[in-house]
Structures are given as C-alpha cells and as structure tokens.
Amino acid sequence: MRLVILGASGAGKGTQAKALASHFGLRHISTGDVLREEIKKDSIVCRALKRLMDRGDLIPDEIMLSIVEVILSEENNFILDGFPRTFSQALALNAICERLGAPIDAAVDIHVPDEKILQRLTGRTVCPSCTAMFHKEYFPPKVTGVCDKCGGGLIQRPDDTAETVQHRLKLYHKLTEPIADLYRRQGILISVDGTGEANQITQDLIKALEERF
Ligand code: AMP
To answer: Rounded to an integer, what distance in angstroms lies between the CA atom of residue 103 and that of residue 122?
Structure first.
C-alpha cells in the first residue's frame, strides 16, 4: 500500500502516519525527519538547508525530489508524511510512481483550523533522538524536558516559534493545500477532521482505508 498524508504541520500528520504505518505494516517516511537527520552532519550544504528550515521556508523541489526518488526506489509500501508539499512535487511524485509501476493508492488530508495549529505547535516539544512529540499543556512528558520513550532531552523546534508557524501556515495555504484537489480528481482523497481525539481519528482512517482495499 502506498499512501500520502497531507495537512499543515501540527495537524497530526506524524501521529496518524506512525499509527497507520504500524497498522498496515508500511514504512513511515517523514521528509522533515529525513532532513533533520541529515542536518545533524553540519556540513556547509546541511547548514544551508538548516537555515531554510529554521525560517520555515521550503527546501527547493529539485532537492526534495532527488531525495524522495532514492527512498521510493527502495520501498514499495510506505506512507509519505510531509511530501508532496507543492503542486509540482505532487505531479513529479505521480511521474516517479508511474515509472516504478507503483501508483499512490490513497491520500489522507487532515484538516485543523489555523488557531489550533498555532496552539499546538508553539506548545510542542520534540525528542531529537527518537522523534517523539509532547505538548506542554495537552500532552506533557512525565518528567519536564525528558522524553518518556527514550529518556532523551526535549527541545522546541526552531521553526515552532509563533512567527515562523504563521509563515509556515501561509506557505501551506498557498502551496500545499491545492494538492488535495489533484488527489480528489484522481478519486483517491480521504479527508478527515483532525481536531478530535487522535485514537478515534486513527480508527476512522483505518476503516476508510480498509473499505477501499
Ligand atoms: P515537517 O517536519 O514536515 O514540518 O518539515 C520541516 C521542514 O522541512 C519544512 O518546514 C521544510 O523546511 C522542510 N521540508 C520537509 N518536507 C519538505 C518538502 N516536501 N518540500 C520542501 N521542504 C520540506
């Protein structure tokens, strides 16, 4: 099964992608996590990528496409989280999948109002070691600043400040939101309200996907 998951950062894509990957036995590919892992290397190229990411800007399509093409040539069952993010990435993804003879089966689109995204992201802390996420108010770790899962130190992502989140939301509405229409026209779009309880959203998505396959 090949899935993509759409929605603004903070809509719950990562949480749902992990749950669906575990349920259906898919590889969870988060392009944000792939990039964050890369920039730990601290080369000049990585520092340039980090600067764009910390500002909330997008990495150029050509770079993202080269990365995704390599990953997908090694993987047939996946859920792509954070890609595609622009219309041209979506068209290129379709072309890559066509070349590999493995089309995208479904696109999940998670809707959450901007005010809620802002609340979620500005209160979010993440574990750079295992990628687990927490929220200062809604989902605090047992010990402040320490990851429940691996004991690593929690940080606030540099792109989770209020100003940068506003910028990312602007880019999302302009560049990413229109992609849903492409998948709607292909008849493979599943839209969900992302404001409810995470486990319930997962169950609804599993049901919708199982009805399709
Ligand atoms: P995320 O973890 O999905 O919120 O992504 C964090 C950052 O990584 C984004 O704000 C972008 O700078 C970069 N990024 C991740 N995926 C993509 C993509 N498909 N296209 C361009 N930039 C991306």
So the answer is: 36
- Residues 10-47 pLDDT 10s: 999 999 999 999 999 999 999 999 999 999 998 999 99
Nearest CA to ligand 1 atom 19: 83
The ligand 1 atom at the shortest distance from the C-alpha of residue 159 is 10
The residue annotated as part of the active site, out of 2, 51, 124, 142, is: 124
CA–centroid distance for 18 within its chain: 10
Cis peptide bond N-terminal to 178, omega within 30 = no
| Residue-range domain boundaries for the chain | 2-204
CA distance 16 to 66: 25
Range list of H helices, the chain: 13-24, 31-39, 44-54, 61-73, 87-100, 114-122, 162-171, 179-185, 198-212
Report the CATH fold assignment for 2-204: Rossmann fold (3.40.50)
Q: Can 47 be counted among the known catalytic residues?
A: no
SS3 125: strand
